[in-house]
Amino acid sequence: MKQVPYWKTDWFLGLIVAGLFLLAGVADITRPLENAGYDLGARFAASQPGSQDVVVIAIDQDAIEQFGPWPWRRDLLARATRQLSAMNPAVIGFALPFESEQRAVGLESLQALKAELEKQEGSRQLLELANQTEEQMQTDRDFANSLRSAGRVVLAIPYARNGAVRETPVLADYQEKFRLDDVSGKPDESLWYQRFLPEPVQSVDRIYPPVEMLAEYANGAGVMNLGNGKEPALRAEPLVFRYGEHYLPSFTLMVATHTRQLSMSQISVHLEHGVELADQRINADNKLRIYPRFYRGKEDKPPIKVISILDLLEDKIDSESISNKTILVGLTGSPYAASLQTPLGESMPPVLATAHSVTSLLNDDMFEVPYWASWAQWSLIIVMGLYLMFILPRFRMSTGVALSALLLIGLFNGYLIAMLAKTTWLPLMTPLALLLIGHLVLAMKQFLQGQLRHVYLELSGANQALAQQYHSQGQLDQAFEKYRHCIVDEPLLNQLYNLGLDYERKRQYNKAVAVFKYIESHDASFSDVQERLKHNREVSEQFVIGNSKSSAPADGTLIVSNPGVQKPMIGRYMIDSELGRGAMGMVYLGHDPKIGRSVAIKTMSLSQEFEGDKLVDVKERFFREAETAGRLHHPNIVTIYDVGEDQDLSYIAMDYLKGENLMAYAKSDNLLPARETFDVIIQIAEALDYAHNEKVVHRDIKPANMIYDRDSGVVKVTDFGVACLTDTSKTKTGTILGSPSYMSPEQLAGAKLDGRSDLFSLGVMLYQMLTGELPFIADSLASLMYKIANEKHPDIRMFRPDLPSCVSQVINKALHKELDRRFQSGAQMTKTLTRCRERLTKKH
């Protein structure tokens, strides 16, 4: 039997789930999942107290209410800087933007007034007052002087990752001192690398460095996220940023460097191995990012000491709070301070978040991400995938749940222990989610399969019963459709095999191929299905597709001699052999399996000869007149048993007769004796007289449509009901149906016909059977039609001078152009023929 398709197996489903997780990891779709796991571990690890060596001078809400909205006059910041410098801090870091100059209102007017005073004598006092006023209004200069006096000062360089990008980002000359020089391992600049591999260092599109006057006296400046970056969450903080072809340090790195009384020249960056500060390696990941610890503090003691700048300016703090401490000055008051999300689930202003990062960096208290962390993640995803594919499906559901739970708990505990005890973060949330979701998916599949199996069994039984009913009724397509919805087993294959044989008998070889192919897909060794497939494919190649319902032979011939397929059936008749070929189809010998009666079956593929409305009209006329002809009962008319249509093949089943058609005796070298010919013609005339009285016109009287048994001397007229098709004149291919040489003038003209037209054709037939020649002969069809309609036929005694004159008289009357001067009935012609036969007997 057929194996379960691979796409329905547990291992394939496990492969799909694992593959999706692997792709999601590569595309960084699972980043929120890893972030959630990191946040959980960071919260457990946040119970440690922070450091009091980092102090935040906060421009808080109270200060803003007293000194006005931000930005403040920079002479106020200069005052704060001088006060801080007097307390001897380790370093002062301004986490504030200074990208534009600050010009006091009226400064230009004051400078113009001062220029006028310099031209006038006796205005010294006014000039000194103007100079003092100008000095007070030059806030940038005042702030710059305070920075020069303070010493170790670090300024922030805000950045944007979604701003307008210059074609070639450059640094101004005064900004060159802020870039890192000791950078090795330059990244691959190729388009392939940039397209498919992530950048090793976070790049920025635009920076907002401090103005030149301030930057000149700052010991350093670093890139800082002030809430304008693309990623406001602070889980990983870059130590190095790429700006065009330049590499800039982060604000956190610069503050830590100057806190340790080091310089920028002692920062060494290797793009593949990490960052070193005075030969001390910093625990950064492969993108030069650190994962700082965020502190909660203990009891009422905050993790980071925060002092309001208002207290500083009002001299409310002692120097011990500032001395040898790392000082960070920044906004904390709303709405000017941005809000950054941290792993603790709390939001805090950038200066406070930076304080945590600086503390973590100075204390070497960061979470380490090993260089092999990504490989560990991919390896575990693969291991979990293999577990889902090959191990879990082997166990019962309860055992599988226990095993998966042990794996899940073990990995999760290992994850937390690594973060808490080893301060090591491994991105294991994706493998854990794969284990959990994969197990749920497989469990759901097994549960649904069990439920569906029960439903399928019930539906299969119902479908099989319905299919058998359709099969017995001959509705093979419906039967096959229902069989396909059944569960496949040995009994069903036997039923399908019998269905395929029935398709063969119905000449639907392409559908038989479909059935046997379906059997083969489930059991390739079943019975002789391979041989059946081979023979049916060979036979179906001899057919052309007719329409969506069936196929028909291109020449109307049925396959009756191929031992590899069942003998075909037309309607209820099984075809035994081929008897002959006609203008529109074939004649076969068949039999009715129910009563064992042999019949001759004439087939016509009307759809190949006519199309459109004409096809509909022809079919209607055919069945109507065939039905009428079927009611004819005469010893000289063949009996019609059945008429119908099968696979677009119209057919008439009639009595199977002994003998042969009269064409064999219409040749000059094989003519019947004149008296025997008259006997035959008289029988035909009597048959036509009977048919005409029943309102049936044959329309195609000719030797080929007469079957003559010479042993019994009986002739029978065939093709009543079929000959009506000759009135359609031409088929879609331009072929004229019927035999023009035997047609009457009115039939050629397309006029309405009656029995006298058949008697004209019988006269032509009598002429031919006595002479072996047709009365009208021409080189073309047009000439022939003209002769039949207008010219007199040659006297028969020119060919047979031995015949009595009455023969000429009979033929002349039968072939007369005018209907009223022709024989008016078959009985009239019979009497004349009988009298002439008597004279013929006397003469011979």
From TrEMBL:
<dbReference type="GO" id="GO:0004674">
    <property type="term" value="F:protein serine/threonine kinase activity"/>
</dbReference>
<keyword id="KW-0418">Kinase</keyword>
<feature type="domain" description="Protein kinase">
    <location>
        <begin position="573"/>
        <end position="844"/>
    </location>
</feature>
<keyword id="KW-0067">ATP-binding</keyword>
<feature type="transmembrane region" description="Helical">
    <location>
        <begin position="424"/>
        <end position="444"/>
    </location>
</feature>
<dbReference type="InterPro" id="IPR017441">
    <property type="entry name" value="Protein_kinase_ATP_BS"/>
</dbReference>
<dbReference type="InterPro" id="IPR011990">
    <property type="entry name" value="TPR-like_helical_dom_sf"/>
</dbReference>
<dbReference type="Pfam" id="PF05226">
    <property type="entry name" value="CHASE2"/>
</dbReference>
<feature type="binding site">
    <location>
        <position position="602"/>
    </location>
    <ligand>
        <name>ATP</name>
    </ligand>
</feature>
<feature type="transmembrane region" description="Helical">
    <location>
        <begin position="372"/>
        <end position="392"/>
    </location>
</feature>
<keyword id="KW-0472">Membrane</keyword>
<dbReference type="GO" id="GO:0005524">
    <property type="term" value="F:ATP binding"/>
</dbReference>
<dbReference type="InterPro" id="IPR007890">
    <property type="entry name" value="CHASE2"/>
</dbReference>
<dbReference type="InterPro" id="IPR000719">
    <property type="entry name" value="Prot_kinase_dom"/>
</dbReference>
<keyword id="KW-0547">Nucleotide-binding</keyword>
<keyword id="KW-1133">Transmembrane helix</keyword>
<keyword id="KW-0808">Transferase</keyword>
<feature type="transmembrane region" description="Helical">
    <location>
        <begin position="399"/>
        <end position="418"/>
    </location>
</feature>
<keyword id="KW-0812">Transmembrane</keyword>
<dbReference type="Pfam" id="PF00069">
    <property type="entry name" value="Pkinase"/>
</dbReference>
<keyword id="KW-0723">Serine/threonine-protein kinase</keyword>
<dbReference type="InterPro" id="IPR008271">
    <property type="entry name" value="Ser/Thr_kinase_AS"/>
</dbReference>
<dbReference type="InterPro" id="IPR011009">
    <property type="entry name" value="Kinase-like_dom_sf"/>
</dbReference>
<protein>
    <recommendedName>
        <fullName>non-specific serine/threonine protein kinase</fullName>
        <ecNumber>2.7.11.1</ecNumber>
    </recommendedName>
</protein>
